[in-house]
Fold this protein.
Amino acid sequence: MSKTILVATEKPFAKKALKRMRKIIHNAEGFDLRLLERYNGTELHEAMTDADALIVRSDKVIDTVIKSAKKLKIVVRAGAGYDNIDVEAASAQKVTVMNTPGQNSNGVAELAFGLMLGLIRRKYLGGPGTELKGKSIGLHGFGHIGKCMAQIAKGFNMKVFAFDPYVDKKEMKELDVKPCKYAEELYKKVNFISLNIPVNEKTERSINYKLLKKARKRVVLVNTARKDLIDEKGLMRIMNERPEFMYASDIAPTWKIEMEEKFPMRTLFTTKKMGAQTVEANTNAGVAAVNQVIDFFEKGDVTFKVN
Ligand code: 3PG
């Protein structure tokens, strides 16, 4: 009997990505694709009953979703951050959880520069702005996205610094990136700060007032990572205290409207999470997810297992 791969996305994959995913599933034989887009909670629970594999994006995979799936063996998050999946509940039910690291990094990195440019070009409203050339950027996190950002920053002739306690300094130096020992050191040094770290119990609300206070004058903080990294009270306080502090993000803060009203030229927010919203990123992550599911069933491959 063929295995059902349920692709459940509240924010659908690009058509081209889906076409590629369908083709791979069709060619593999023994697998069926079931597509659930812009669904509600009940629909997801129902669809899970006969799913052997689940592929999602930022969709919340809570414990009841996992429990409603008696046949489920694997969940693949087509993307990097898997904080949307209840990994503990999955492990308890012996369900393998994977992500597709690096597949959508370039899309996220390019958006971070788009947001930076939007702010320093004063939202393209006509007034004179400033340039990236010769300025310094601090990469808070030097994983796949951080590395993409370093490459792009070099193209803009920026000086690049990074802080990441989990990455060997040698790796940074090889890419002409100056390592910082502490986050505070990074924040003190640079004109632009980009958050490229996952959210977990260690990093949640770690971007707080104390840290932001260290940032140099006229800094632009860009968050294309996760909302929960930011201590929003601390951010609001720094925005109020420092009339030159700028913040851009594709994950709007709780006080989005208030911030936009108070600091119209110092904030820039997209309408929804946009980092990986490119045809290329969707295709890379979607294709990787499908291949990982098939390899898991056919070869027992657990290369990208996170639990
Ligand atoms: C990721 O963690 O891979 C990104 O945040 C992209 O998320 P998305 O699939 O919801 O666009």
